[in-house]
Design goal:
The protein is an alpha+beta fold. The protein is built from nine helices and five strands. The protein has two domains: 179 residues, nmb1532 protein domain like (Four Helix Bundle (Hemerythrin (Met), subunit A)), CATH 1.20.120; 118 residues, PAS domain (Beta-Lactamase). Strand 4 and strand 5 form a beta hairpin. The structure holds fe (ii) ion (2 copies).
């Protein structure tokens, strides 16, 4: 089929646009993008968009169109080539920013987002021009033999990058897209349901973020083992503990932050009840420290349990 070359290239465009949308969603995440998403995108954009797709056009399509009199300077091919160059330059900046972010320079996120937006906008507008204008024109101009030669050329360029180049990058694209579609199940819960679930847990929760600022506590306005009011929100955790315990608090938080410790637990007697207090480091899916969760539980009744009671027994 003489127009198959164009469907091959259009498939590249549509795969890349899905990747761009997934990465845009990832960058919008209030908690910051997943590092694996950024590195997968970096590998896809450098290995496929720049080194494969653009090269296929530049080596096998544009020269034939030029031979048919489509002007390079001041014409559509010049615009396409200039945009390839612009996208390459932006990608170079993006790769640098991604590497800095992945290496812990969170301050690069604002620039990373804006550079990605420029890159995505450029590619989308470029793909529209090619898909809707340049390729239809080329389909009219190229003979059947030439069209077949373009397709052969596209496949050759891919095979020079490895036997399974196309399948490999399509799989990488799917991984990126799936990463963003596979949200945590709790994302499907309305906020008020999630809040009610947390308030129904038989434990009291308090959460301080990665900067040690109190952000949340459960069971507000309910009878609590450790009563808390909204005034605690926004305070540094160090302000909520007596000075003599600060050294210990800071030590635990430091151990959580650097992964040396997975739990810190204490138990006290209070009003004839046994109170179990545990602290856990909270990490996201890629292991980044998000903060510390305090879990307080009255375990008096649990300690008193004897024998068994099974669901199917009366
Ligand atoms: Fe292009
Ligand atoms: Fe293209």
């Amino acid at each position: 089929m003489s127009s198959e070359w164009s469907w091959h290239l259009i498939e590249d465009h549509s795969t890349t646009e899905r990747v761009l949308d997934a990465v845009a969603r990832g960058l919008d995440d209030p908690g910051g993008p997943q590092l694996v998403l950024l590195t997968a995108f970096r590998d896809y954009a450098t290995g496929f968009v720049d080194a494969c797709h653009n090269q296929k056009e530049e080596r096998h399509l544009f020269p034939l169109l030029e031979a048919h009199g489509v002007p390079r300077e001041g014409g559509p091919l010049g615009v396409m080539l200039a945009e390839h160059e612009q996208s390459k330059a932006l990608l170079g900046q993006l790769v640098g920013l991604i590497d800095q972010y992945v290496n812990g320079q969170a301050s690069t996120l604002v620039e990373l987002r804006s550079t990605f937006e420029q890159y995505a906008a450029l590619l989308k507008s470029h793909y529209w021009k090619e898909t809707d204008v340049l390729y239809p024109m080329a389909r009219r101009i190229l003979s059947e033999t030439e069209a077949d030669a373009v397709l052969t050329g596209l496949r050759e360029t891919e095979s020079k990058l490895g036997a399974d180049t196309r399948a490999r990058f399509q799989a990488l694209a799917e991984t990126i897209v799936n990463m963003m579609e596979l949200e945590d199940l709790s994302a499907g819960l309305p906020k008020e349901v999630l809040a009610a679930v947390l308030n129904t847990l038989p434990v009291e929760l308090s959460f301080v973020d990665a900067e040690d600022t109190v952000r949340y506590f459960s069971h507000e306005n309910q009878h609590k083992i450790f009563p808390r009011t909204r005034g605690a929100i926004g305070l540094k955790v160090q302000q909520c503990h007596p000075p003599h315990s600060l050294y210990k608090v800071n030590q635990i938080l430091a151990d959580f932050r650097n992964g040396r410790r997975q739990v810190a637990e204490f138990w006290i007697d209070q009003g004839g009840r046994k109170i179990h207090i545990r602290y856990f480091p909270v990490r996201d899916a890629r292991g980044r420290y998000l903060g510390c969760l305090e879990v307080v539980q009255d375990i008096t009744a649990i300690q008193a349990l004897q024998g068994e009671r099974r669901l199917l027994e009366d």
